[in-house]
Write a structure and sequence with these properties.
The protein is an alpha/beta fold and 312 residues long. It has two domains: 2-225, Spore Coat Polysaccharide Biosynthesis Protein SpsA, Chain A; 226-312. It contains 14 helices and twelve strands. It has helices at 8-18, 39-42, 44-52, 68-77, 97-108, 133-140, 146-149, 156-159, 169-174, 193-203, 227-246, 254-277, 281-299, 301-311, and strands at residues 2-4, 27-32, 56-61, 83-87, 91-93, 112-114, 117-121, 164-168, 184-185, 188-189, 208-210, 216-220. Helix 11 (227-246) packs across helix 13 (281-299). The longest helix has 24 residues, at 254-277. The chain starts with a strand and ends with a helix.
């Protein structure tokens, strides 16, 4: 299943990768989240190819942009299969993606499975000097392979990224889908709908697994690797973390989480200065990002919660 919004060029690449799978899907569901140009007009040739391969393709278009969380729930309710594989419209699936997921569902009895996301930087773009894949890859390129994540404490929710994961449909129905307010809502580019979903699944005792062979390549255009983009992410992720803390997804009260963020701001700034003196640009950028993220979580929280209550 794919959710798309104004990225028909990348969507076509994603769909072609799905049709080259070693195990073809029974159906492909596309949620067109109010794109300026309806997706149906852009993928006529691909629809014909799906028919030739005997793959059902279902396309649903929202009247207004509802965000990833709500759009994924809309698509999941319309899925007819037992297992649902989610990838983004700017992701290119490996040929064994679906087969790897199905095998693990059956052999390991998992209910939610995540796969690696590798960045695919556009060839015509030169990465800036302050960029380092091992330091910053997880921020912008949403990298979650074991090489990148190996130094982190194991938390299944940290490995499940929306651009590549699969779910037993029964779990989706049991948890009533993704929270619709974790997405683009009234100008807030929120995220974390998959993190919240997996956290709720774990609390219910559902098994979460990681499949190293079910990987995708996540397309990273030049517009994403800029300092301006990183600072915008700090704002959006700060709002997201505020909501997750407000709803006790972090298993902490909001006041305790604020104290944690306040301490983290000073800690990250000190480490940023140290890295700057050592002329380590990537680590300096990472600590500046972390500090801004924790600060935005505190400063934007009151306004974010107010908007959230009006949406609910």
């Amino acid at each position: 299943m794919l959710v798309t919004h104004n990225r028909s060029k990348f969507l076509c690449l994603a769909l072609k990768s799905i049709m080259q799978q070693t195990l073809l899907p029974d159906e492909i569901i596309i949620i067109d989240d109010a794109s300026k140009t309806p997706v149906l007009k852009e993928i006529v040739d691909i629809i014909e190819l799906c028919k030739a391969l005997d793959i059902r393709i279902k396309i649903f278009r929202t009247k207004n942009e509802v965000g990833l969380g709500a759009a994924r729930s809309i698509g999941a309710r319309r899925a007819s299969g037992k297992y649902i594989v989610f990838i983004d419209d700017d992701a290119i699936a490996s040929k064994q993606l679906i087969e790897s997921y199905i095998n693990m569902f059956k052999k390991k009895r998992c209910k939610i499975i995540a796969g690696p996301c590798y960045p695919l930087y556009l060839s015509e773009y030169k990465l800036p000097n302050w960029w380092d894949e091992q330091v910053l890859g997880g921020l912008i390129a949403v990298r979650n392979d074991l090489t990148y994540m190996s130094k982190r404490t194991w938390n299944p929710a940290d490995y499940v990224f929306g651009c590549n994961f699969a779910i037993d449909k029964n779990v989706l129905e049991s948890l009533r889908g993704f929270k619709p307010w974790l997405g683009r809502v009234r100008g807030m580019l929120l995220s974390g709908e998959e993190w919240d979903f997996v956290s709720r699944a774990l609390s219910k005792g559902f098994k979460v697994c990681f499949s190293g062979s079910a990987f995708i390549y996540h397309i990273i255009p030049p517009s994403k690797i800029t300092i301006k983009r990183m600072m915008r992410m700090c704002v959006d992720m700060g709002r997201t973390r505020c909501i997750l803390a407000h709803e006790r997804v972090f298993n902490k009260s909001l006041s305790i989480y604020f104290i944690y963020c306040a301490i983290a701001v000073f800690k990250d700034l000190i480490e940023a200065v140290i890295n700057m003196l050592m002329l380590n640009e990537p680590k300096t950028m990472k600590k500046i990002y972390d500090s801004a993220l924790h600060l935005n979580t505190i400063l934007l929280c009151k306004d974010t919660i107010h908007k959230l209550r009006s949406i609910k």
